[in-house]
Amino acid sequence: MNFLFFQLILAIGLCLFGGWLFVSNWSRTRYLLDTPTSKVSSAAQGYVELAGILLDLSSPNLFGPLTGKPCQWWRYRIEEYSSDAKGRRWRVIEKGTSEGWLCLSDGSGECLIDPHGAMVLPARREVWTGNQRHPQGTISGSGSWLGLIGLGKQYRYIEERLHTGEPLYAIGDFRTLGGEQGFDLQAAKGRVVREWKGDFAGLLRRFDGDGNGRLDEAEWRLVHLAAQLEAEDRHRQRASLPLQHRLAQPDAALPFVLSSHGQEVLAKRFFWQALGGAVLCLAGALLMAWVLGVRHW
């Protein structure tokens, strides 16, 4: 009975995990295929897909922490081969990811990218082993496997990188700052008035000419005139700023993906992962049906 109960728990776990894997990866596949590729210079504000070349932006220059190779983004992981109650396995003992911004150019313009929260899938991935916690010198292929037979500790090093000049695919939330074009004077004036009302004591000091502790109709007209002038001045300042395009993590539960692989490669990858999730979910459902049939539930 206990074994059947364990099988039932396993079946439920397979169903839930497989279902989650299917839904999340199928959603990514559809978003990648259904979102048209935009040009940086003409992209709409909001969720967009871009494709271009990764430019050199890092200052000071970035280097891979394990290989020392120059790059624009890196992610690394150090694993130790060890044994515990679960058996012998690779255990992560150190990892890290760079946080510097990236810059994509597609010929029509440049877009700064904040990689925080992104699923980054680089083409450059190096894996090797050694007998020291941190690798020294150059990469030595597969390294020494003496640690696996008890003659010393064994470590595995994994480093992924994005390099200048590589293709860069990006899908996320696109915003343009500076160079303000459209201007709604009444809405802008209203925002200024609401901002000033947040400090009503300061508003009285500026516009309560008779000092009676309140603003009469004439004084409110002065407030609105001053707010209009302030709104126009702010608009002129923003309009004078150069355009700056930015891509970042979307607010909604939308995929945020950066990769040196193209859309088709990524969509195919997510499709097969979704298919794998569907198979796991189906296997869990069949196992559950079998267990329930054995128990006659």
TrEMBL record:
Keyword flag Cell membrane: no
PROSITE patterns: EF_HAND_1 (PS00018), EF_HAND_2 (PS50222)
Transmembrane feature ranges: 6-23, 270-292
Gene source species: Azotobacter bryophylli
First and last residue of the signal peptide: none
The name this protein goes by in its record: EF-hand domain-containing protein
Keywords from the named record: Membrane, Transmembrane, Transmembrane helix
InterPro entries per record: EF_Hand_1_Ca_BS, EF_hand_dom
Domain (EF-hand) ranges: 195-230
